[in-house]
Amino acid sequence: MPMQFSSHTIECPQSSIDPNGVKLKMCAKRYTAGGNGTADAGSDGLTLLFAHCIGAHKEIWESVIERLFSLSGGRVAEAWSFDWQTHGDSAVVNRETFERSPGRAHTGVTAAEWAAGVSAFIDGPLAKGKRLVGIGHSAGGGAMVLTNVNRPLRSLPFVSLILIEPSIIPRELFYQEIEERVSTMEFIVTATESRRERWRSAEAAYTWMRKRVPWESWDERVLRKLTVCRDPLSRFVPPLTADLKEHGLEGPSDGGVTTKLDRKLEALGYTDVESHFLAPVELGRICDSVPVHFVWGSECLVPEFVQRALTDGTEGRKATSVSTVDGGHLIVQENPDGTADAIWKILSTSTLPPTPLGKL
């Protein structure tokens, strides 16, 4: 029986950037295996929470989630995947708020603010009493770490954290090579702001991306999820739905298709260095209270000295495990099966507490 899903919208905490009483929304999907393949979410089954990288969307995880259900034999009860407030469906529902909040043009939504939205979900009724595993890729890894901020160690919500190619760095290391870091950041921002974002059809978008970096190296299933759109010119039908539900693209009223994610807001995500600095500090605080696992790509772009710093026990940052998956920084998109296998190995070989260690 195919994987089942339901869509949800979570209200985020009030931000000082937005008008009083106006709050951003965060869109999410809950996935279950369907049939008899899913454990009861209220039993000992695990609830997996997924956070994507900059430029992606919640459905980018679907191939990973589907494989995890097939591997877990019912041990995974459910999975939740969240759209950053500027990405995917969240970008659509928040568009009017962004227009009413002039400050957003300068700040976008930081990874720390995304973390606050995920934290609101964790504290709500949909996650109450469940054995949560936080899984984040790139900036999403940092966001998942930051959901623990301001929580007492005895009240941390996770039984485990899995950080996949986390794009976080101790502040002092960033400033050691400040010129190179800033140069790289400026290059990415310029490339993002000038990138094409409109095509005549979803199929044209797919064809264009298939021949270009970084999409040319993506798994076929993942790229098709990005380019699915409710578009009469497209023949693509997504694996999980039969109604051409949009994922990464939408069909504006003036014709063609465009990305839901505004490229200017995406570019602001790359300049959000403060969230990248805060996450290693938080790691040092929580590592004795929650198992933290790192997964890196075999062609990882994160320098080895940064990887070592993120698992520096003298700073309290203790890795429960470190593993490698074939692929580059975007291993979730390039090698979803390998990523799922690495996650499942962690879940199946680790002794996960019945409740978060902080609550024992």
From TrEMBL:
It holds the Pfam family Abhydrolase_6. Signal peptide: none annotated. InterPro entries: AB_hydrolase_1 (IPR000073), AB_hydrolase_fold (IPR029058). Residues 48-342 form the AB hydrolase-1 domain. This is AB hydrolase-1 domain-containing protein. The lineage of its organism: Eukaryota, Fungi, Dikarya, Basidiomycota, Agaricomycotina.
